[in-house]
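Issue 218. Parser rejects a valid record. Input:
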Amino acid sequence: RIYLCNNETMNLKSFVLTIFLFAGMLAGVSAQGNLKLGYANINAILALMPETQTMNQTLASLEKKLGEDLQSREQYLNTLVAELQDMVEQGKPEAELNPKRDEINKLYQTLQTKQGEAQQKLLTRRQDMMEPIIDKIQKQIDAIATEEGYTYIFNTIDGSGVSIILKGPEADNLTVKLMTRLGIQVPEGAEGGNN
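Output the parser choked on:
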């Protein structure tokens, strides 16, 4: 199964733990004999998939729409703050200032809630759209593993851009093979399968 993580979730401890688990897993499989490892740059494949590009366009459009709503609320909040400042400068009594402050506080809290909801909506939409894309890649990884006898196929780069596979036989770099099977136009210079 393909696992992607964002920059916040990958830290040094989990990287070291991954290395130890990887080493233990390899030791166990090596004892059995038939170990065949492959690797691919899933991030590069994802970036070139038409589905990913469509997803990014959809998310950008949704983000713009949500941003426009938040911006209009923020502008209204700024108008109220300016009105309150004018009232203070005019020396209005607290009895007149307090309702305006309450209105500003309430609108500010609503704006904070709406910002959180917008971020969650974007995240949920991204996850929903990403799932079939990942499944499509996973099916091809599974097919290659079965057809060519790979025990493991690794992603060369983690979610934060750190290389996991530092050196490996070029014959086991499956990036271009996966791109071809997914119908992706292989970029010039990638024919050798470089990650």
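Fixed in the parser; the record now loads. The two ends are 19 Å apart (CA to CA).
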